[in-house]
Every structure is written in structure tokens, then in C-alpha cells.
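Review form for a predicted model. The reviewer records the input and the model, then writes brief findings.
Reviewer: anonymous (R2)
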Amino acid sequence: MIPVGYYPCTQDPTGGKQVDRLIDEILTQAELCEQSNFDGFFFTEHHQQEDGYLPNPIMMAGLVGARTNRIKVGTCVALAPLYHPIRLAEDCALVDLATKGRLQLALGIGYQDIDFEAFGINPKQRVRRSEEVFSVLRDAWAGKRVSALSSDYQFKDVLVTPTPYQSKPDIWLAAWSEPGVKRAASIADGWIIDPIQSLSVLKKEADIYREHCEKAGRKPFICLMRDAVIGETVEEAKALAEPTMETQRWYYQHGAYVQDEHIKNVSSVDQLTFEIAAKERILYGNADAVLEQLSQYEEQIKPDYLIVRMRHPGGPDQQQALHDIQMFGEQVIPRL
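Model under review:
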């Protein structure tokens, strides 16, 4: 059975006025995920957003870890260039110790200027800073003294204590471009596929990833991310899909979609319908339909892990979100 993680909505549609309620809802979702066969619960981060987008995925992972006993807790993703590597190494080690080795760290290099502006960091430095974070984390967690005397960081012979519960925590890397996929193959323990490209695009990227893993002497590990809209029928799923489509249209508007056979005739965001976006991009329908759709990814991509997102700022509401988690956990995951 392929492990499945859950990716919660961390935005408050009331304009950041009810973030406390949002956190309560997330913790309830995490507890249900643990009861419903999910393997992990993962947070991302953004900054300066009016909807109160939760900015600290490591802290949230620790909160979920305190409310659960089995599932992995972690990030998907933390933005590596925004962190001082010593602080990140320490914080992650504490969460891993508190959860007895349940931390799963995934990093990304970032793509929104507003995130970098919050910390006074030049986005052009993001690759170099991210690669240094990877290097420092691995050495620090191995008990080595670490140094960085560069334009980005200034520290020498620092010993990170305590070290993590896991002897060698894995670090995954999200990548949406060919250079990023190659970077994941060379420095990371796993590659997280973006949640919006179609199978033809993902297949090319997966082939590149596996080829470069072989060159780097690394075992490939692919984590597939997908949005899911749950409904007893296709028609019901379509009726519930507008919040997901709002997210998909945002990606399309900002140039994140790679041209493929499904969107070749789409020239404006208004033309991006659910019927078009759902083709190889969104899991939708009942358990049988979702399993059939996932079989295509298994055949062409052969993922080692799956992370699903089923809630967006526009919905569904908490009751529906809990229903979707339970349905997916009880009817889909055991059959993967």
C-alpha cells in the first residue's frame, strides 16, 4: 500500500480574523487522518498574506505531533532560503525528538517575491541559500560541527544540540522545473512533484529525475501531490469543485501551467473549466473513480508517496472536509 499524506488548507477566508478557529479545525483533521489510515500530515508556508496564511510549518508540525501518536508530521514545503540553517536544524531536531522520529522535512526554494521581501532576502540567492541549508542540516544532524563563512551566513564550528531522534532524517525537495528536478536528484532524498501538471509533463520530469538519480548514485523517491474533489458521482464532484478551481485558475494566471494537450486551446483563465483541469490534474468522484485515476499515475509515474489536498480557502467547510478525509482514508487508501 502506497503511503498517503494530507495537506491541509492553512488560509483563513475571513481575512485572517479567525485563524484560531482554523488551527482548531486543522488539529481535528489531523486526528481524523491518524484514525483513517493516512501516513502523514504536512504544512507549507507563505508570508504577508491578508488571509493569515500560517507562516510557520515547523511549529504547526510540532502542534500536530503533540495531538497524534502515529502519523508523520512535517512540511510540504518549508521555504529553505528563508531560514538560518542553524535555527532550522535545531527546530527540526526538537520536533523529531518530541514525536519520537515522526518528522518528515520537505523543502522548496520559493517562488513568491513577497515571501523573500518579508526577510529582506534577494530571491536571486534562493538556489545557493537552499543548497547550503541542505548541506548544513545533514552535517549538523550527523553530530558534526558546521561552518558557513559566506555572503549569506556567518558562523563557525557550531554544534547543533540535541541531534534528531532519527539517525538520518530524510529531506525531500519540491521542484517544478527541469533544473529543480535535477537538483532534487543530486541533493535530496526525495522529489515532490508539483500539484498541477498533467501526466505527459510529469512523465518527462520523472524520467529526468530517475536518470539523474542514477548518475548521482541515489535511490529515486517520488512524492506525487494532487488535489482531490470527493463526491458520490462525477456530477456531485463537479458541483463541489469551485474552491479547487479557484486555486487552479490562480496557478494558470501566474504561468505555472505547462502547455500540454489538454490546455492547448485554452487562451484565457475564463476558459479553464473543471472538465479541462480535471484531466490528469485533479482526482475527483467516488472511491472507485479516484482509484481508477490514480492507476494512471501508478502506471506512468510509479510514485512512492502520495499527498492529497482536499480543502481550499473557499471550501469545502469543516464538516465536508472531515467527511472527505474519512472517505479517502477508509475507502481509497487500503486499496492502493
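Findings: Residues 199-216 form the longest helix (18 residues).
Further findings: The mean pLDDT is 96.
Recommendation: see findings above.
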